[in-house]
Design brief:
homodimer; 219 residues; mainly alpha; Tetracycline Repressor, domain 2; 11 helices; elongated; DNA-binding
DNA sequence: TGTTGACCGGACAAACCGGTACGTTTAATG
DNA sequence: CATTAAACGTACCGGTTTGTCCGGTCAACA
């Protein structure tokens, strides 16, 4: 009965242990993928032991799922915390795209983990159903596009899903592929100036696609 | 002196064996990543044995590097085999973007392998220096942009690198992330119709970004 | 046709790694 | 303080996986 309190007040804190494990594991999985990461290595980098991974998460896959879940949560809160209704459709769209870019830039490990998931054909993600936030993001975008189409500032007939894919692609790709790009073109894609330039370009690209043209055609 | 001929004419053909090994390994690495793929599994799927992997490539990493190298080569020939100088800048740009999309769509394993490389921070790619083709692709793009800027059909002041990144992002992302997207939005991203729709959208996006705005357009 | 050397395959070895058994510590509670 | 259950650590097991060994085969060429 005092159970709940008991659990909460522990000094020997399970949730702290879990959090540390997840944090380190996020790094490790992002760097090496699910198969490449080593349970022992993850444990060694924490203050606790390998056994705790099995105690708290049951298996390597369990830990990975926990990492995935938290990663998506972080994305969600970062993406969803903005009110676009106060702005004009054009400004809202710019803000949305910029914010999306920033989220990706801020959480490169998450981007990496999503990559890892795709290499593994999204096996693990199927057992998690906590990402209605994507649909939510799509709704946000749809509202902006509708608003812009109505007042003539944005092109009409745009497919929200396509635009979402475009935004996602532009933001994701730069963060995801810094290494190969950096090597091929020999520039430091991480640097603040390149980051800023890329962000600007991404926003400009989406705006170009969505903004109404002078001689707007209607079918 | 008859050495070259000898090597060529073998029935017991080493290059055929190598090719088969690389082909299967490409699949396997693309599906599971470097760490996730199993040497034994690769060997089992070929007509030859595991020993040949070590005979021809020295190690698992050696095989992976060979796969990477050939993957980039395939991209290069597929990308470079077109003459854009006969077309107007606008048409050339559309063709270039479309062709880039098609290359990615046709070789999803290569896309996957580049993903895998980025997860592993491009460790292996550093030991390969055979991709000036990217710079070549950049030159092709630069020429088109310059031409378009000169005759007023394309915006002036565009950065070829940024546009290249954009094209790459749009083409790469759709192919790379079919699994997570497919799951989140519940549609079959592989299907011909979705593929076609996406291709059209990608071309339209790049054109929107690069085309001269209504005021300056001629045609 | 016999020799040579590149090519091949299956069995084997050693390391590696996920997972577990079992014992210990900590903190809340009576 | 004794009890209890959660939290934790250590040592180890057993399957898996990379890489090797050794004997055999086939094609080219003299």
């Amino acid at each position: 009965m005092a159970q709940a309190i008991t659990k909460e007040r522990r000094k020997r804190d399970s949730s702290a242990t879990r959090a540390e494990l997840i944090a380190i594991a996020t790094d490790e999985f992002a760097e090496k993928g699910l198969a490449g990461a080593r349970v022992e290595e993850i444990a060694a980098r924490t203050a606790t032991s390998k056994h705790m991974i099995y105690y708290h998460f049951g298996s390597k896959d369990g830990l990975y799922r926990a990492v995935l879940e938290q990663a998506y949560d972080e994305f969600r809160v970062a993406e969803g915390s903005f009110d676009y209704d106060d702005l004009t459709a054009l400004d809202a769209l710019s803000a949305l795209v910029g914010a999306t870019f920033d989220v990706h830039a801020r959480c490169p490990q998450i981007v990496r983990i999503i990559m890892a998931e795709n290499i593994n054909c999204g096996q693990q993600i199927r057992s998690i159903d906590s990402f209605q936030q994507r649909e939510l993001a799509l709704d946000t975008l749809r509202r902006i596009l509708d608003r812009g189409a109505a007042d003539g500032t944005l092109r009409s007939g745009l497919d929200p899903l396509q635009i979402h894919l475009t935004v996602s692609a532009l933001c994701f790709h730069y963060i995801a592929n810094v290494h190969t790009f950096g090597h091929v073109f020999e520039f430091d894609a991480h640097s603040a100036e390149h980051m800023k330039a890329r962000r600007k370009e991404v926003v400009a690209t989406v705006i170009s696609r969505c903004a109404a043209t002078a001689g707007e055609e209607k079918r």
